[in-house]
Amino acid sequence: MPRNVDVSEIYSATVALFCERGFSGTTTKEIADRAGVNEVTLFRRFGSKAGLIEAAIGDTLSDVSFGKMLPGENVKADLLEIVRNYLETYRKHSGLALTLFAQVPQHPELRAVTPFLLKNLQGVARTLAKHQSSGRLKPGDPVSFAVALIAPLAVMGFMKEMGLGTGHEGLDVENYVQTYLQGHGPDTGR
């Protein structure tokens, strides 16, 4: 009788190995060994290494909270929640975004996962757009505003991954959001 395959274990092993070794350095044999399944199972279920990596990354990125939150009435509270959720996601999957940014240009078969990154950014943009429409943030392109909120956090994390800084360690989230609001909050006639 065949044993049940835990797809979450396969996805976890796939993402971890992808982050450690990149696309070329990750083998289906290592994924199977780490996940405790037969390598043939991976090919039956996902068709190819690229299909498996796409499914694992897609599953991982579709479950991040910072891109799925619903906006409230308090812009600062929403921004704090976005930033805290982003930082939590980064702690859980720290090397994933950096590895993707480094690997996608070299491996066109990975381009299928980029919509998952964009979907999360668009989720943040929807929250910001609501606050823009209520006058709690300046008017402008909400996607650009989302990039302005998230990109510095991503760069801090990337720098730590490359051994060039401390990353998010010691980041004062309240101050970070307050600084963001100084540049993106409503004009108050200053």
Quick synopsis:
The protein is mainly alpha-helical. Helix content is 67%, strand content 0%. The chain has helices at residues 7-25, 28-35, 39-46, 49-61, 75-92, 94-103, 114-133, 142-161, 173-184.
Secondary structure tally, helices: 9
Could you tell me the radius of gyration in angstroms?
19 Å
Overall shape: it is elongated
How far apart are the termini? 73 Å
Stretches where pLDDT is under 50 for at least 5 consecutive residues are none
What is the arithmetic mean of pLDDT?
90
Question: Helices and strands, in N-to-C order?
Answer: HHHHHHHHH
β content, as a range? Answer: under 5%
- Alpha-beta content class: mainly alpha
Percentage of helical residues? Answer: 55-70%
Largest sheet: none
Oligomer: single chain
Beta strands, count = 0
Structure, described:
With 190 residues, this protein is an all-alpha fold. Helix content is 67%, strand content 0%. It has nine helices and no strands. The chain has helices spanning 7-25, 28-35, 39-46, 49-61, 75-92, 94-103, 114-133, 142-161, 173-184. Helix 3 packs across helix 4 (49-61), helix 6 crosses helix 8 (142-161) and helix 7 packs across helix 8 (142-161). The longest helix is centred in the middle third of the chain and has 20 residues, at 114-133. The chain is elongated, with a radius of gyration of 19 Å. The protein starts with 6 loop residues before the first helix and ends in a 6-residue tail after the last helix.
Topology:
Layout: H1 7-25, H2 28-35, H3 39-46, H4 49-61, H5 75-92, H6 94-103, H7 114-133, H8 142-161, H9 173-184
Helix pairs in contact: 1-2, 1-4, 1-6, 3-4, 5-7, 5-8, 5-9, 6-8, 7-8
